[in-house]
Amino acid sequence: PTEMGRCETASFTAAFTADAIQTASGVLFTTTLPNAGFAYVPGSGLITLNDGTPVPAEPSSSGLNLTWDLDFIFGMAYELPPGEAVTVAFALVAGCGTISGTLGSRVDFVLGGTGYWVSDSQPVEILPGAVRIEKIPSVISAGVGDEVSWTLVVENTGLGPVYNVVVTDVLGSGLLYVSSDPAGDNADQTTTWDKTHILSLEMIAPGERVEIELTAKVVACAGLNNRADVRFGCDDGSVCFDTEVQGGTATASILLIPRNPLLVWTRPTIEMPYCSQSGVPVTIPITNTGLGAAYNIRLCMDCSPLVVSDVGPGAAYEGGCFVLDAPIPAGGTYILTFTVTYPGDWCAGVPSGTVLCQSIYENACEEEFRPPLQIGSFSTTYGPEGAPRLSVTLTGSGEVYICDVGSYHVEVRFSGLDSCGSGTTSDISVAVNVPA
């Protein structure tokens, strides 16, 4: 062939025809390679004798010259009858740095005791391949939790084919690999495709392109860049061109859409049964009405003098705050449950007061939110089973004439429990203060 691509192998033939009336002897073929970028393919040498017999034969080499000495190869004087032809076929491979040149061929021979030589040459043009890679689209708008997809386009923009093409895509730390089509070899943030994954990557002809679909998930607010590179080379492992080294890396990124959480919950109103020793269960549903998940959630409550215990699964009470183990997704609800008890002396007074409540949480970008404080309350129940109470009612005439008798009625009422723990109510004393 007069044209070759880099990393390609081509077969050539040198044919020598003897003089029409004289036998040729001492036949010696010499081929001169165009330049050092060409290499002989071992085992490709083949001599075809004038009778059609094929004889595999390796040449001796010196610099750019390949030599087939027929007498030496056959171990005897070889004679080529008049008008007959003998050929030498061989293969050459072009490496990554091979440039165009002229392939020369010379045959030395003897006619009637006199040495002669003939020669021929042929130009061999190297058609270099070239690759470019593109990611489409270059920018995608997405939020944390969204899946995004790119198309990787690899195109041969050169004059010759490219071989052993390898495509590499590296995701930023804020992206998580989901899938690709065709499937590649994924390891953490890096996915690689070669001819074992996509057959057409073994050879891409000029003007042809290969497309790969890549899908990833946005898992953070930073590290949202993505880059892809392509390289090609020869079967011996040599690399002819690599965009990562020589330029041409394809890049893409995510334009982050912020999606903030908003936690809504009802401030607690706790009623303590009088003289209760077992505590009061409290339930607080926490709903995320925002567009994004809420992370690192804390609900801080100053419940003093009440004591918090028996916190439900998924949360813990630490340093005056309920700490949730897991985020609440947008539209999700977490049911916070716990128990409060009064450790004080019920006979010394009944507990009542306010509960200061502060919610603290973060969005996916670790930005903190602190909505305004909410004020809850706790009190002690009264009534037949509640705290003991006395009431007194005095009724009678509002005016009394001198020497008359005024009549009055005193009514005392008791409600609530008359015992608590080991103690009971004392006797009730009623005192009426009569004016002088």
Radius of gyration: 48 Å
Task: Count the DSSP helices.
Answer: 2
The average pLDDT is: 93
Describe the global form.
Answer: rod-shaped
* Number of β-strand runs: 40
Secondary structure: helix percent: under 10%
Major sheet attributes:
7 strands, mixed
Alpha-carbon distance between the two ends:
141 Å
Stretches with pLDDT under 50, minimum 5 residues: none
Structural class: mainly beta
Give the amount of beta strand, in percent.
over 45%
Write the layout of secondary structure elements.
Layout: E1 3-5, E2 9-17, E3 24-32, E4 38-40, E5 46-48, E6 54-56, E7 60-62, E8 65-69, H1 70-74, E9 79-80, E10 85-94, E11 101-111, E12 114-127, E13 131-136, E14 139-142, E15 147-156, E16 162-163, E17 166-171, E18 175-181, E19 185-187, E20 190-193, E21 203-204, E22 209-218, E23 225-233, E24 239-242, H2 243-246, E25 250-256, E26 263-265, E27 269-272, E28 280-288, E29 295-302, E30 307-309, E31 315-318, E32 321-324, E33 333-341, E34 353-362, E35 368-369, E36 374-380, E37 389-396, E38 408-415, E39 419-420, E40 423-424
Parallel strand pairs: 1-12, 14-25, 27-36
Antiparallel strand pairs: 2-10, 3-8, 3-9, 3-11, 4-10, 5-6, 5-10, 7-8, 11-12, 13-15, 15-22, 16-21, 17-20, 17-23, 18-22, 19-20, 23-24, 23-25, 26-28, 28-33, 29-32, 29-34, 30-33, 31-32, 34-35, 34-36, 37-38, 39-40
